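START domain-containing protein
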Amino acid sequence: MKMLRGMVMAGVLGLLLGGAAQAEDWQLAKDENGIKVYLSSVPGSKYKAYRGVAEIKADVQAINALQEDVPGSCAWIHACAEMKLLKHEGDDVWTYSRIDMPWPVTGRDLVLHVSTEKSADGSIVRHLKAEPGYIPEAKGEIRVPRLVGEWRMTPKGQGVTEVIYQVQTEPGGSIPSWLANSFVVDAPFNTLNALRDKAEKGL
């Protein structure tokens, strides 16, 4: 019944300042603690796309269970202030999230449509897409107008799963360059690091 809810949320954070669909020429930006973060310029956007890659010593179902815990997923998603489920329909879910931003930058919120595909080999792909008009805008927040991305979980054998988190987004409003530059690295790295920690500890 839960399906993709949590990852759905995971997507949301990463969503803030990333790029994937039209990204090309990925460049390694960080390689630390078994996690690699790649960045790419996106045609027509001033915000870089990001892709995080990590291997987690847990099977796909264990990771999936963590992702389906929508409110709980906020604990491992970078800069997450709130996550909640709006609607669940088959393999599709709609979620709402609020993202903390450092003062004096206005906080962002995001309505995300997540659709899940499961393959015979046990892999799971979650497609992420912002739907900013799904619910009325919240006072005091800037609604993220565009986001496209995916979570891809592929079993590698012996209880190991490769997790790829990739996002392209326009965060709306004005974002200082220093924050944009740090967020596209911190969001995938910190999210994958925290997800791996929980999955491997069985929490």
